[in-house]
Write the structure tokens for this entry.
Amino acid sequence: MKPKIIILGAGYGGLTTSLILQKELHSDEADITLVNKHSYHYITTHLHQSAAGTKSTDRIKIDLGELINPKKISFIKAEVKKVDIKTNQEVYLNNGQILDYDLLIIALGSEIETYGIEGLKENTFSIRSVNTVQLIKEHIDYMFAKYKAKEAKPEYLTFVVGGAGFTGIELLGELTDRIPVLCKKFNINPKSVRVINIEASANALPGFDTQLVDYAVKLLEKKGVVFINNTPIKECTENGVVLANGELIKSKTVIWTGGIRGNKIMETMGIDHHCSRVKVDEFLRIPSFENIFMIGDMSIIMNKNGQPYPPTAQMAVQQGKYTADKIISYIRNGERYQTPFTFLNKGVVASLGKGEGIGKIGHKQVTGYRASFLKQLIDNHYLYSIGGLPVLFKKGSM
Ligand SMILES: Cc1cc2nc3c(=O)[nH]c(=O)nc-3n(C[C@H](O)[C@H](O)[C@H](O)COP(=O)(O)OP(=O)(O)OC[C@H]3O[C@@H](n4cnc5c(N)ncnc54)[C@H](O)[C@@H]3O)c2cc1C
């Protein structure tokens, strides 16, 4: 009998697994179903550009219909509500469907971590999906229009980014590219606009070399960003953010990029987890569940120093490929997963706006235009890998 394979999530991890299975397996070898809450895949690594308004959301969405062959994979557009891995081995969807499986791949990504900060969820924006970044873009435009047409309140043009990690820094790079455009459009003096970054730890970009962090911070300061480090946010209100020292920074636009946790679906599964993420075994399976892979941001993988690797698209894609290979080998040869997963760090590049970036490939540091070019190459390579030339030409940056 054909094994039933269910893949939850069509992000970097889930889509990679799906596309390899689609290419390699014949339709009589497995019954494959992919579930995703949207009918499109989105380029998460470009969300910050759409949030700032430097790239339209159409450029970061790829219709799953262009990638998935219905003769090989059944696609269900629905939201996963519950995963019962202990009693019935079933997945519950918001459309009422219940799916059973022989092999399950869970790749539902992450959500924002609020660290219990009061009012954060209610009063801040987050960079999590096409819809949330569309909202940010429209809100920023509206703030400029409101400042000009209604009342010139400084809080309308005070933009606060909470967190100076990878996403926060990339967002600041784009925001500071867009603001001059908006100032021109609305005929507003650029000096009226403030962009503030608030970070609880001593430095921006943990994990990056000091020289690269200095490069990024100096460049962003030149573009107008004010960095406030060593300062946790205590509370977020509709008027702005209250810092640990009690100071209120008035702002109508606070964008939180300070941390992520795994998808809350984890809480329906009745297994041990750490902030909705699971330390998977060496074969990327949930411990004690031989037929369930957990990949991408929901999984925790340790490096050789016993520290968890940061959740990245690079990690999710490599896990997606590994999982597909293991499933194919299992179906074809009955081979149980014998080769453990190993992560190959190919380097990391962060963009700092148009033509600017920082990165490290192996031991080599790159900055400026070279880093920005490298980032485009990485992104284009991913687009080509999922959709070939048609997707590269439609969505890539040339
Ligand atoms: C602004 C930004 C920039 C980034 N830049 C980089 C970078 O340069 N390099 C890098 O390596 N990483 C980067 N990352 C991190 C990277 O995007 C993530 O690590 C990666 O997307 C994780 O892949 P995933 O498959 O686990 O989840 P995702 O890619 O987030 O996919 C999860 C999928 O599950 C779907 N889903 C979620 N919940 C449900 C549900 N209940 N039911 C059905 N479907 C659901 C979602 O719609 C989505 O399609 C960046 C992240 C952000 C936000």
Notes: The longest strand covers residues 31-36.
